[in-house]
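Suppose you are handed only two things: the residues of a chain and a line of SMILES describing flavin mononucleotide. What would the bound structure be? This form records exactly that question and the answer produced for it, so the two can be stored side by side and reused later without any lookup.

QUESTION INPUTS
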Amino acid sequence: MKRTMVVLAHPDMEKSVVNKKWIEELQKHNDKIIIHDLHKEYPDCIFDIDREHNLLENVENIILQFPLYWYSSPPILKKWLDDVLSYGWAYGDDETADYKMKGKKIGLAVTVGAPEENYMKNGSVGFSMDEVLIPFKATIKYIGGIELPSFIFYDAVPETGDEKISESAKKYSDYVLNL
Ligand SMILES: Cc1cc2nc3c(=O)[nH]c(=O)nc-3n(C[C@H](O)[C@H](O)[C@H](O)COP(=O)(O)O)c2cc1C
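ANSWER OUTPUT
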């Protein structure tokens, strides 16, 4: 059984610079990692919920990988969370029930166009990345997941250059392989 699934939510991987590099690096380890590209698998955004449940139930670690769009994820990830984390499966009223995401390790891997200082105190955004990611962190907590440290790459723009982007891809695959 593969222990880790990376759920990729990027609407335009053809034009991607950073997420594409990250996925190319992860693909070298596809004996250990499941790469689940939501747009590729579900171009119409209609998910096969039983299939998604089955995939999630069979891994220990889940990474949600996405580019930051308007201080959130691309919409397909929100819809995936809305549809897949269903009542009675991911959460419910029975405190003793063994809901299926309980105890799963879940992390966020996010590419961010702006530089890190924008997300510091007194930075132009005015909120830290930890604050920006609160809805995802709250979701992980609510379903009983164990939140992993986030993997964030700032300056995710082509001008950052191939070398730094390739370096981030190596660090990212180390992060995913060593969960
Ligand atoms: C619709 C849209 C919204 C974006 N919103 C933000 C944002 O809120 N904050 C930010 O720092 N970068 C933002 N960006 C920049 C993206 O985060 C950046 O282009 C992406 O992470 C680069 O990854 P990629 O090369 O894999 O596409 C936005 C980009 C797009 C297209």
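WHAT STANDS OUT: The chain has one domain: 4-177. Residues 4-177 form a domain with the Rossmann fold fold (CATH 3.40.50.360).
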